[in-house]
Fold this sequence. Notes:
The chain is an alpha/beta fold and 312 residues long. The chain has eight helices and 13 strands. Helices cover 31% and strands 29% of the residues.
Amino acid sequence: MLCFSRDRLYSIGVDMGDDTVKIVQVANGNGKSGVKLISGGSKNRPKDIEQGSSDWQRWAIETLQELIANGNFRGKDVIAAMPSGEVFIDHMKMPRTKDERVEDAVVSAIKPKLSYDADGAMIKYTQTVDDNILVTAVERKNIDIHLAIYEKAGLRLKSIAIWPSALMSSYVKFFGRRKTDVDSIVMLLDIETNWANFVICRHRDLLFAHSIPIGAGQLEDEEAVSKLVFEVAGFRHHFSSMYKQAKIERLIFLSGQTVDKDISTTIAKQLEIPAQIGDCLAAVEIDDPYNAGIDRRGCQFSWATAFGLSLS
Length: 312
């Protein structure tokens, strides 16, 4: 479980997605979740600016400076995450090696799956359970771009996290607070504008994660909904083949009200799993809604990753 000191102030969480920059800072609260919003802010990427371009880098720097200046943020420390589309995730059994290190064996196993040279990537692995590991890879040039953005924006980057850990942090703090939740395996689905991020965890134990290039912008099409369900079902089957004794108890839509409730209901029915809406904006305590920087009523995208990063 997460334990907080009475007056703890968390770092600013920065979710620099493919289409939107979202920043959040939280602190201890007195409400049900024990978390209150200090400040937040967001800005959509202009359609004429290509993500990852030099123009985008300048826009990202200016956007961060603008959001910080216009908000009630405290300090300059930030925890950020790379965009979903820039993070490669794979799952495998722990390599059994004699003559080479585990790290080298992992790199050798995923090298053919990468669309870029493994020598130019930062590759990490996390051991889960049942002798399984979760592997992540990011191109170093993309990491360098993001490091430069935060430096030029005048922010102190404490760490770069991965989005699955951020989603898990949001779940644990806002929706996994019962004693029975500690041993429950849940499926988290965070549907962004153009991506659906999928996580399976046992409380704070990350077991499985993947990104699916289908987002809220496409889900008005029944065919896209069916395709998303098909992809999630496939990953669930993959998970079950790796964790033979694990049973997923429920599905939590961390995208809150971003996706129409009828669509969420359809997804849950087709997956044949109990589900609930996990709305971070409804769970967090907001003392001053008019100056919080986030409009609960008009929210068009998920805040789960940004909140999870601040809570990290």
